[in-house]
Structures are given as C-alpha cells and as structure tokens.
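Recall from the previous lesson that a structure prediction takes nothing but the amino acid sequence as input. Here we apply that procedure to TonB-dependent siderophore receptor from Halomonas casei. The sequence below is the only information supplied.
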Amino acid sequence: MPSFPRLTLTALLLAYPLHALADAKETLNNLVVTGERLADNSESTQRYTVPASRSATGLSLTPRETPQSVSIITRQQIDDRALQTSGDVLAQVPGVSPSRADSNRMSYSARGFTIRSFQFDGLSIPINNFWNFGDTDWDAAIYDRVEVVRGATGLLTGAGDPSASVNFIRKRPLPDAAISLSTSIGRWDRRRISADVSTPLTSDGTTGIRFVAAKDRNDSFISHQGDDHDTLYGVISSELSSATQLTAGVEYQRNDSDGMGSGVPVFYADGDRTDFDRSASNNTAWSTFYNETTRAFADLSHTLDNGWTLRAAYSHNDGNYGMQYLYRGGYPDRDTGLGMSSSYLNYRGNRTQQTVNLSAEGNFGLLGRQHELGIGWMYNEDDFDILTASPAGAAPDAGSFFNWRDSVVAKPAWGDFANADSMRVTQSGGYVVSRFSLSDPLSLIVGARLSDWELDQNYFGDERQYRYSNELTPYAGLVYDVTEHTSLYASATEIFQTQNARFEDGSLLDPLQGRSYEIGAKTSLLRDQLDASVAVFRTEQNNAAEAIPGVEVIGQPGTQANRSIDGNQVNGLELELIGEVQPGWNLSASYTLAQAETAQGERTNTSHPRQQLKLFTAYQLPGTWHDLTVGGGVRWQSDISRAASSPNGSVQVGQDAYAVADLMARYRFNDNLNAQLNVNNLFDKDYYEQIGFYSQYWLGEPRSATVSLNWDW
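The prediction returns the following tokens.
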C-alpha cells in the first residue's frame, strides 16, 4: 500500500495553515459515554428523516446546512414498504431510476448519468458495471438507512459520474437488549425469515453486539427463474475509553439464482414486434448464477481534549462470482422460433477489495468566529480475476426459442477455464473541506480533493495500463439562513471519470470532467418534523471522446483515434417533501425533471425517464383504531426509448409513461407482535422495465402481495 502522496499532503498544507488548528478556541461536545453512543441510528426514531448526515462533505451537517440535494431512506421507510434488497431501496430514492441488463445485473441512474459511487459507512467501494455479477443486490436487513447525495460528489468519492453517491449505513448495536424476528410469504412461492438480535455486554451499555440473519427464497413470474439469498451480519461496538470508540464487524451475503436469463427478443425475423406472455424466458433450466461476498470492517474514532475527532477505518472485501447460461440473440422465425444465434457462456471470478479511510474533523476559531474543518485521505485497491470456459466440442443445438417453456436445451460439457479479465484498479486521494461561518446567517463550504488513479489490466490477452495523477476536484457551497427554519443555497461541485480513448499520437484523453451547479431552498416545517426542498441544477460532462473518422492511433493498427469535445449536459428540477405531517402520519413525496442533452441539443440517456414522481405515505389511525397503520404510494415515470437493431434496420422502441401503485397495512396485536400486508403493482400494470438493450426487453413484475408476521422485544 503506497504512502500518502507527497503532492496531496502539500496541497492540504497549503490549503489551510497549521496555525489555524492551534487557534481553536471552542471544542466540540465530548462523546457521550453512555449507551446512547451506540444508538446512532434511524430505526429508534420511527421517522422518515434523520437530523444530520456526513455523506456530502464529510462534515456532520443538517439537511439545511448541506448545499446539495440529499435524500435518505430510513429504516422506517424500508420496513413500511417491505423493501428486501438494496435495489428495492434505490428504486424508491428521489431522482434515481433503475435499468436491467439481465436477470441479475442492475444499474442505476440519476441526473442523466450512471451511478458508480457506492459507499459503506462512508468508505468508498466502487462498483464495476461491466462485471457487476449482482453486486448491487444486497439484502437490506443489515442497513439502518441509505443516504444518497445527487450531483457531482468527487470530494469524498474520487472517480465517478456526476450522478449521485450512495452511502449504505449499517446497523449498530442498540443501547438496550432487543430481539426482532420476522417471517413472510408472498406470490411466486416467496418465503423469507429474518432475525435481528442486539444486546449490551456491559452494565453501562458502552459495549454491545448485534447479529442479523436473513434467508430469502422465491421463484419468479418468468420461467426457470428463482433466487435464494443468505445473509449473515455481526458487529461489536465498544467505547474503549470515554473518548475512544471501536466498531468492528463482518457481513456475509450469498445470492444463488436458478436461471440466468437475458431479455426476450423484441422482433420476429420478419421485422414485426413480438408479443409473448409475461412468463416468456430467454433462459434454460440449467442456467445458474451465484455471488458470494464477505466484508470485514473496523472503525476507530478518538476525540481529543480540544474536541477534534480522529477516525481510522478499514474494510476488506472478498467476492466469488459465477454464472453459466445460454444467450440467444437475433430474431426468431414467427412460425418456427428458429433462427436465433446462440452462445454458451461460463464465467468464474474472484474479487478482492481493500479500503482505508483516515480523517480528522473539528472546530477552529478565526477572526472572532467559529468554523469547522475536515481533512481526510482514502485508499482503495480493487482486484478482479475473471475466467471463462467454452463448451468442449460441439455446442448443443439451441433449437426453437418457442421451447422456452420446456427448456429442452441440453447443458454443454465445459472445457478448461482461461483468463478473460485480470484487473487491478487503485485509487487514492486526500481532501480538505471547511465550513466558514461568515456571519450568523451565512456560511461558506469550500474544499478540494487531489486524486491518483491507476489501472493494470489483461483483457482477453490485451494488456492495458492507464494512469491519472493529481486530479484536482474542487467543491464550493454557500448557505444563507433566511429564517430559523429556511435556507437558500448554491453550490458548484465536480467529479472526474477515467476513460481509455486515445488521441492520434497514442496518449490518453484527459478524464471526463463532471460539473454540477445547483441552487435551491430548504425548509423545516411543523416543528422541524417535515422537511421540504426545491433544487434547480445543471450538470455538465466535458472531455468526451469523439472518434475521428478514418484515423487510427499511430503505431496501433485497428485502434480508433479520438479527439476531446465538450460532452453532455443535464438541466433539471427536483422537489422533495419528507417527514411527519402529524403524529403517526409519515410522508415521502418527490418530483424530478432531468433533461439530458448533447451539446448540440440531442436527447441522451433515453433509456431512463426524464420525469419521475414518487409518493408514499403511512398513517397510524387514531383512537380505537390506533393499532392499525395503512399506507400506499405511486411511482410514475415519463417515457423511455432506445434505438434497437431489427431485421429492417435501426428502430426506435420504447415504453410510454406509466404509473405503478402500491398498498400496505400493518396491524399491531400488542406491543410485541404485528402483521403486515404489502401489495405491489396493485392494478397489475403491464410495462417494460427495460427495452431495446441488445434488441430485447424485460417486463416489470406483475401484481404481487407479501404477508409478514413480525415479533419485537
């Protein structure tokens, strides 16, 4: 592991003189030394909001103090909506839209760009969208909340797109002993059981442990498709002294799928559109997929006598992946179902990640006022080894696509495995950020990050090496408190994304530069129980590669030469209202408009909707009906489209605007026992979840219902 880069250290020292630290006149509140220190969670509040977040700047800021759009899905929201996976959670976040590549690989978009920045407890864990073997499909049972910062977030995450960063906050031990058991059944033979146990180990509650286990098994409305998920999580947290806190844990998740399917063909061989029923499957009975991940982490924080908090965190991730399946491409004959191409694929992979995070945060005095300062350094190393095998000898005959109901295609005998992709990506960076109190109502947040990024890869025999050094990522935000409860803000943030396109002389193009400009207003209503926000934003991504027609890289025959141009831009609006309307009535409502275009005004990112409306509410009835909570919501999105290949050339295919409604009801029999019903897609809306990708489509899930029985003590 490399030492702290010299240039990064120099930048931090120049950014803020050391004497400012010595002038600190006011200390932060000391760490609470009782069991309450262990209860940094959203689940104990039963609310849809949290008081503060560090996900945007690394500083602990309230929503009104943060000059960016931040949305949080709390534990109460997860439970009310019966969200089982991380993908279920992300689909509910304002402005975030999912897209499916196949049965097991999902990607997510915000503000016109793909989300690649994922964090766990603030530690960046990059997602590889190409080799994403279900790596965005974790069980939600172990998370207290999910925090999403939209726009360019390079200050804390390093490389990525100007879309959003997602921070999964794990559950921690509770101050008092607690047990939660849950079991549920649902359509398509869904069965789930989970247990969550937390207990203090000391009489004063300063040390505690927590265990979470979940088992989830379900079939699907799609033939030959089913999932089997196992999740185990254990964490211990202890105050080693009145100023020192240590948390360590391990999580294990294994996802097995019966069936690994692609989408269903959009066109027949004569060019007409297909019209299969919902159970149609581009799959076989022997196709399988698995993803096994073990993450171990440790987090140590210490508060100095002057109130400054020092933090050192480490995470180690081991992943094993595998899938074998038949991919059918092209177009079936309308009468026989013959004519599609077939590829028998078998992949195995291992992945190892290491992440280190060092930071310091505290107050300092300057010009008679108190300010905040955060300094940090992060390092991430990501190693992939992907192997592939082909059928030994002649591949089996795939036959007619119309045989998908019976899945009569034979499983091939596989040959030896060979290297497909060996890759190591390392990223390190140091940042500094400060929140200056310019006056009682006005604060300025400024910061910068300096990053190094390296890739060494053998991709199917092609050796690749890419290096980017000293990438500077600035951050600036201004917040003005109009009243005690209302603030106006403006911000300009950046992020960079690496690319492997080359100029004619063989040199790499500079990284893509993403910039977000945002102005907005945030207010707290109803005694700070309900948060409302409005934001207008513009996002730009420059240094995009454009192929130079007929020109190859000098000395590399067959390698396309490129030039750098100004890239895409997104203009949009976001509205969000979330919190408690009155005691027992929680509400989450949002509207997003994101108009993505090229510099020439042509629409981009058409496979994701321009507009989204998301609404969900849960209301605990008063009086004699107070044991009953009812709720529901609606998710609406505008049209999506994509250019797809057809037998008659390129054809634009898409999905018109549609809405999906959900319902929930929970009845509490006593203080410990309750039952809950969740109905998704209440009106059984038939819609495409994805259409046009490799000229195939994937239908959204029909109406389904889940009944759960929950016991808490």
